Amino acid sequence: MRDVAIVAFSQTDHVRSSEEVSEVEMLMPVLHDVLGRTGLRTGDIGFTCSGSCDYLAGRAFSFTMALDGVGAWPPIPESHVEMDGAWALYEAWVKLLTGEADTALVYAYGKSSPGSVRDVLTRQLDPYYLAPLWPDSVALAALQAQALIDSGETDEPALAAIAERSRTAAEGNPHAQLRGPRPQGGYVVRPLRTGDCPPVGDGAAAVVLAAGDRARELCPRPAWIRGMDHRVEPHALGVRDLTDSPSTRLAAERAGVHERPVDTAELHAPFTSQEVVLRKALRLGDSVAVNPSGGALAANPVMAAGLIRVGEAAAAVHRGASGRALAHATSGPCLQQNLVAVLEGEPHAR
Amino acid sequence: MSATPASATPASGAPSSPEVPRAPLVVEFPFTRSLGPVQSAFLTGLRERTVLGVRTTGGRVLVPPVEYDPETSEEIGDLVEVGTTGTVTTWAWNPDPRRGQPLRTPFAWVLVRLDGADTGLLHALDASGPDAVRTGMRVRVRWAAERGGSITDIACFEPYRDGPESGAESGPESGGEGSPGRGSESGAEHRDDDPAEHRGPGNGTGSGTGSGTGRATRSGTGSGTRSTEPATPGAEGRAATGPRSHSGEFDDPVTGVVVPARLDYTYTPGRAQTRFISALAERRTTGERCPSCRKVYVPPRGACPTCGVATSEQVEVGPRGTVTTFCIVNIKAKNLDIEVPYVYAHIALDGADLPLHGRIAGIPYDRVRMGLRVEPVWTGDDRHPDHYRPTGEPDADYDTYRELL
Which residue ranges are recorded for the region named Disordered (chain A) (predicted)? Predict the structure, then answer.
């Protein structure tokens, strides 16, 4: 099997509203930046894959408009997932592993500002038993948070500490939407307070993948993908133990997380309570730097926030801040789907 | 163009640039979905005030029921009737109900494990406040007065103190069970409820996921040894006997649901399309030139799809143009006040390198042809061309537009 690495990462500044620009206008600078970091042009890219959601845009096939920013002529091999871009990255990784391409461009974007993301996300739920009740994303996360509190695994002060730690870390992240600690605020849906919830915002991100020697040519210290796996829980919330994440645990095992210790973990936990679940499932000790970027509590552009976790982990490897980093992405209510990747900064010892 | 619906959330704290045009965009859809045998039985059952679950081959009772075992993926269809009372396994207080949610006043979201079930059903709990809700509390179904076979046939849950019932379920419809043969037993449940009977996890297999917290709390309110024991066959009441087999057959079964969905957006077109729309208001049509390949795109979307770079150089095109290709529309679209048949065409405005769409009028539909020269006819409010009509010029030579087909 070939070695595949992330060789470049770029993201927008994440903002509450980017109403002055269209999706493609928001995305294009990121695409140009990530290609510029490698010196590649669109025509050099072997495979392009993106993640986004029509329900955010309120328009069918909205990703085709964004594709204008890539330069799709002469025709390119291209694909799209109606999911977070982390899953687009998975598709591209497989494409490179099979040898069908040597380089890949992966991007993702989400503009939550045109609508109400709490309402929009209800439309991803089971249409027979859940969607008619319009349970919003904060409400579902709050059910999970209460289950954790009842089980004694966390309490409100502990959740507040997660919020404070994340947003303090984001002070060093120029792209973050919320930088620096802020009051926990009142209950949005009890037990979750404003501070326990992610900001609503717009943003985009992109990475470039390359295989083998191509990666070494393009990046002085490639972030080698040592393993990546994604798993899903039963979709019915009432079937699941909301205090645990067996899918994350299994994905981590299959991705090889525990073969050697990681020093950094970028976790896609939009709600403070979800970090509690993920830390347990991933068996992360206190020595691991969790979300040094600030994580999704500092910027959560829907459909891009997971890809950003992988990108932030890769960037930490690129700059030598991490030797072995874990990246996690989630999708769906209450950590329904989970992806785990392991990135390393050294050549693979075979 | 400037109306913003109250339900659309404006950017908090972000100053909105006054030149950004915006308009309400409502996406509304009635999703019509068919039901399989299990979902049909469940939703029909709700209409008849009967809650059905499905038993897996491993013995777990899933409520609401599904057609495939989430653990083994086996097809399952062994329907059972469970109680209309249950236990809250987790909850969240919702101080500010949103459109479409079950109650208009503040309420608790709850996962309820109905008596006899091993899994949680998500719904709303009508309670006086967060202090009146706790994990492990007993609740019962409040049926909607009007029921047609949907999850909203359960209006919500309400707090329920186990014990002799004063008035069966609730409201004027109480007492009238829909299915003969079950009515008396259902009635027995209400008359003979013993606080202890509901404490057990139904059929004895409920010690799986998610039950730890609820069980702990229940043992605090239960009464001695029976509180953690599985229900005993032969005891009175539905909960005590556990889930009972049910044929799933009802008169006039519900076989489909129509699920209305509405989302409200505030549409903003972005920089390039804003420039285009602003020019239209002055009866000008503008394209944007790609700095790389020099092509002029109309309408501009801000990027050259060939080169993947931003377009910015403004180019006024038209107003006249050439029909490059067309079709004849024979089916009247809903809410469209145009007589059929009519012609819809690709029109290459003079100076543009990409044809745009437009309707052709002012000429019989069967006289429209490739190469026809046309010009825009503006709407009364000058917002955009309503359609294009022939200019009377000679037709354009094929070679002048062959690259634009």
Answer: 168-189
